[in-house]
Design brief:
Helix content is 16%, strand content 39%. The protein contains three helices and 16 strands. The chain has helices at 2-13, 95-99, 212-234; strands spanning 29-37, 40-47, 56-63, 74-76, 82-83, 87-94, 108-116, 120-123, 129-131, 135-141, 149-155, 158-167, 171-175, 183-191, 198-200, 204-207. The longest helix is centred in the last third of the chain and has 23 residues, at 212-234.
Length: 255
């Protein structure tokens, strides 16, 4: 029985094509190999990450036996939350259970679905200073397909408010109120599906705007000084004016 099955399974694989599908955000599945070992079928491949070694994937293996409608039974190998750290993945399938009633050639389909990708803040990327009423631009990447995010404001480590919800664009522009309190702030980006996927921006400082009157006073003071000097040249303070430089007394003669 086992020998007949092994002959059939060998014939089944010879000449077949192995169709590999990398699903969601295009990580790489390469160097696929399939081997028959008695009643087992060993499937191995290299799984690479897209942008971070912290990414995780769920793995499913299908075949043309049922037009790729139901995943094959896997005896050995991690299927959930698989870290994509550029390593060789090996799965052992139960050949008797998966193909006992099947005859003919078969194709395989490997589906790797991203289930976790860390959020990375792109902006602000370093400590910055903003005046009240300024626009603060926030940008980030990461997360999985169709994931949405909350944008929260923190001051001195304490959450002050939620600035935005259900954000799916990877960017947010915060128009700071003109009466925003001075201090040190951070922006937090958090996945709405996975509360553990959360990151804080670099700390930025909010400082008060220079009041208009403070800006104008030096100008007014400089104007008053110029007027005073001009007045001194035109006559004695408190006098009627109208004098000129030629009316000044001669300097004393040197001894």
């Amino acid at each position: 029985m086992a020998y007949a099955y092994q002959r059939r399974i060998l014939m089944l694989f010879f000449g077949s094509l192995f169709f590999v599908l990398s699903e969601v955000q295009a990580q790489s599945i390469e160097n696929v190999q399939v081997e028959v070992d008695g009643d087992n079928i060993n499937v191995s491949f290299d799984l690479g990450y897209k942008s971070s070694i912290q990414e995780k994937y769920d793995i499913e293996i299908y075949s043309s036996r049922d037009n790729y409608s139901k995943p094959l039974t896997v005896k050995e190998g991690q299927l959930k939350d698989v870290p994509a750290i550029n390593r060789r993945m090996v799965y052992v399938l139960d050949g008797m259970e998966n193909f006992a009633e099947f005859k003919g050639e078969v194709d395989f389909q490997i589906v790797a679905t991203m289930v976790y990708a860390p959020i990375v803040i792109d902006r602000p990327y370093q400590s910055e200073k903003y005046k009240r009423g300024s626009m603060v631009q926030v940008k980030w990447h990461g997360g999985i397909e169709n994931e949405t995010f909350n944008v929260d404001l923190y001051k001195d480590g304490v959450k002050m408010q939620t600035l935005d919800q259900n954000n799916e664009f990877g960017s947010y522009s915060w128009m700071m109120p003109k009466k925003q309190k001075k201090g040190n702030y951070k922006i937090a980006i958090q996945s709405e599906k996975n509360s553990l996927n959360r990151v804080l921006s670099p700390e930025f400082k909010v400082k008060a705007r220079v009041p208009f009157i403070v800006k104008v006073l030096p100008v007014l003071a400089a104007g008053a000084a110029a007027y005073y000097v001009f007045g001194m040249q035109g006559g004695e303070p408190g006098g009627g004016g109208g004098g000129d430089v030629n009316s000044l007394p001669d300097p004393p003669a040197l001894p």
